[in-house]
Amino acid sequence: MKLGIVGLPNVGKSTLFNAITQAGAESANYPFCTIDPNVGVVSVPDSRLNKLKELYDSKKIVQTAIEFVDIAGLVKGASKGEGLGNKFLSNIREVDAIVHVVRCFEDSNVVHVDGNINSLRDIETINLELIFSDEEILDRRITKTTKGLKADKTLQSELNILKKLKETLEEGKSIRTMDLTEDEWDYVKTLDLLSSKPVIYVSNVSEDDLINDGANNEMVKAVREFAATEDSEVVVVSAQIEAEIAELETEEEKHEFLETLGLEQSGLDKLIQSSYHLLGLISFLTAGPQEVRAWTIKKGMKAPQAGGKIHSDIERGFIKAETIAYEDLLEYGTMSAAKEKGLVRLEGKEYIVKDGDVILFKFNV
Ligand code: GDP
């Protein structure tokens, strides 16, 4: 999964991104995390893996990972080629979801590009750039489809939906706010429009405002109200605090630090959780003496495709998925004890994998 961090200049993107890369995953486990300075990889915390490691006496834990891409430089006018506008916009095209950092902290030492702080105006500025860029794409598509229509009347329905999308953009609204049928969404996905991407708004607040999840901060309230209108998520963080957390060496130190602040979770953990929720993702687990490991899949995925995440051979030669719920395994301590209780299931091709399933795939090579 790849998330792109956007936001106006001076809102705390780099501070957050640096905290993310510093908290970063052990690169040995993620060969794809190369030296690109704009990409940071974090492992997804999953306490179930620690328990499984004990049960199986495994050598190591491999967490699943999320890639964060720092898409700095998206400014007013980007869609018209201001700055390095178009390059940034094409970076956004590649991500699964957008993490939109919004400044909700006061600090007279940190200038705001528009002179004062206004979270809603900032959101609108960035969203409009994405909308303008989408409009250009749609204009070209509409021209092409209109021409094609002379020879092929079946293009009429496509043209209708393209026009419907365009109207929404002209009202200054993002495509993701639209009420479309599943078929229409499938078609929209093929267009790769920026404003159709799911968004998490990250409200960057001062340390004091972290308490009660930003409830005392008017700008956070405004962000929440806006996000609700488009089914986007909101995560309240303090980029500065995240930077301090990232400096700490051990998990214990992190826990203690969070406790002194009266917090249960770091902002980064909240962000990860929120992205799973937003994108409809779950994790299944594999366990053995060599390693215990979490794998991320889309909710609703069937057993062979889930196995395909591990290796394409598993999907191709799928026979059965020996499956047990993590809680059941934990309760009975070993696979054989759980088997006696009838809690280990042999699931077939149509089985829909659930979050926390511990699976051993049987397959023909
Ligand atoms: P970017 O341009 O969006 O990448 O913003 P930066 O991460 O470079 O941050 C801009 C400035 O705001 C820097 O001086 C940061 O130290 C400061 N800053 C970032 N996050 C916070 C925060 O949560 N509180 C305060 N007071 N300052 C912050």
From TrEMBL:
<dbReference type="InterPro" id="IPR027417">
    <property type="entry name" value="P-loop_NTPase"/>
</dbReference>
<dbReference type="InterPro" id="IPR013029">
    <property type="entry name" value="YchF_C"/>
</dbReference>
<dbReference type="GO" id="GO:0005737">
    <property type="term" value="C:cytoplasm"/>
</dbReference>
<dbReference type="InterPro" id="IPR023192">
    <property type="entry name" value="TGS-like_dom_sf"/>
</dbReference>
<dbReference type="InterPro" id="IPR004095">
    <property type="entry name" value="TGS"/>
</dbReference>
<dbReference type="GO" id="GO:0005525">
    <property type="term" value="F:GTP binding"/>
</dbReference>
<feature type="domain" description="OBG-type G">
    <location>
        <begin position="1"/>
        <end position="257"/>
    </location>
</feature>
<protein>
    <recommendedName>
        <fullName>Ribosome-binding ATPase YchF</fullName>
    </recommendedName>
</protein>
<keyword id="KW-0547">Nucleotide-binding</keyword>
<dbReference type="GO" id="GO:0016887">
    <property type="term" value="F:ATP hydrolysis activity"/>
</dbReference>
<feature type="domain" description="TGS">
    <location>
        <begin position="280"/>
        <end position="363"/>
    </location>
</feature>
<feature type="binding site">
    <location>
        <begin position="10"/>
        <end position="15"/>
    </location>
    <ligand>
        <name>ATP</name>
    </ligand>
</feature>
<dbReference type="InterPro" id="IPR006073">
    <property type="entry name" value="GTP-bd"/>
</dbReference>
<keyword id="KW-0460">Magnesium</keyword>
<dbReference type="GO" id="GO:0005524">
    <property type="term" value="F:ATP binding"/>
</dbReference>
<dbReference type="InterPro" id="IPR012675">
    <property type="entry name" value="Beta-grasp_dom_sf"/>
</dbReference>
<dbReference type="InterPro" id="IPR031167">
    <property type="entry name" value="G_OBG"/>
</dbReference>
<dbReference type="InterPro" id="IPR004396">
    <property type="entry name" value="ATPase_YchF/OLA1"/>
</dbReference>
<dbReference type="Pfam" id="PF06071">
    <property type="entry name" value="YchF-GTPase_C"/>
</dbReference>
<dbReference type="InterPro" id="IPR041706">
    <property type="entry name" value="YchF_N"/>
</dbReference>
<comment type="function">
    <text>ATPase that binds to both the 70S ribosome and the 50S ribosomal subunit in a nucleotide-independent manner.</text>
</comment>
<dbReference type="GO" id="GO:0046872">
    <property type="term" value="F:metal ion binding"/>
</dbReference>
<keyword id="KW-0479">Metal-binding</keyword>
<comment type="similarity">
    <text>Belongs to the TRAFAC class OBG-HflX-like GTPase superfamily. OBG GTPase family. YchF/OLA1 subfamily.</text>
</comment>
<dbReference type="InterPro" id="IPR012676">
    <property type="entry name" value="TGS-like"/>
</dbReference>
<dbReference type="GO" id="GO:0043023">
    <property type="term" value="F:ribosomal large subunit binding"/>
</dbReference>
<keyword id="KW-0067">ATP-binding</keyword>
<dbReference type="Pfam" id="PF01926">
    <property type="entry name" value="MMR_HSR1"/>
</dbReference>
